[in-house]
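thought: fold this chain, then report.
action: predict
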Amino acid sequence: MIRRATVLLLAALLPLLAGAGQAGAAGYRYWSFWEQDGTAWTYASQGPSLARPSDGDVHGFRFSVSENSADASKPRGTADFDTICAKTPAADGRKRVALVIDFGTPADAPSGETPPAGRTACAQVPEDATTAEALASVAEPLRYDTNALLCAIAGYPEKGCGEQVSAEKKGAEKKEEERTEPADSDSGPSVGLMAGIAVVALLGAAAIWQTRRRAS
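observation:
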């Protein structure tokens, strides 16, 4: 009876334990690329070296630590095309692309580096220019790795490129970034931890029961 209950409980708790493992997944420190749709940011479906914006588009870049696109931090600020490119008149054969560059928070910064203040810029480039070319015209130096991954904008960060950040460090950085925010009412032992404790307790009870049964 105890053995069967143990098996059933383990089967029920395995999804929770798996979810706890995923929650502790490592993140990556990198520049994410965004496109503005109205007033909302959407994660770009292609890289800046492939994207070819139209005149009047707003593209953004944000340096942060995230696990994937769903977890990525968006560029901050409310500037729109009319504001960013207000002093750049249209010109024949060229297009204007508004760029929002968010260097992230100190919690996202590599060790020993401090993120510069965020900036906006209006890039006026040839009509067939990519976002990467527009960015290069206003925020050099850019740095790429051998796989054409954007590593640095305006020289930040000085080193590193898409490096993995351990789950422990990622959690510490997140805590530092949010230390002034209200505490989460759900804080406390994780579901995975409680599930693990329950499994250990039940297995211990089963072992004691088996020992007593054999002794009798």
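thought: worth noting. Helices lie at 2-23, 81-84, 131-136, 167-177, 191-215.
final: tokens above.
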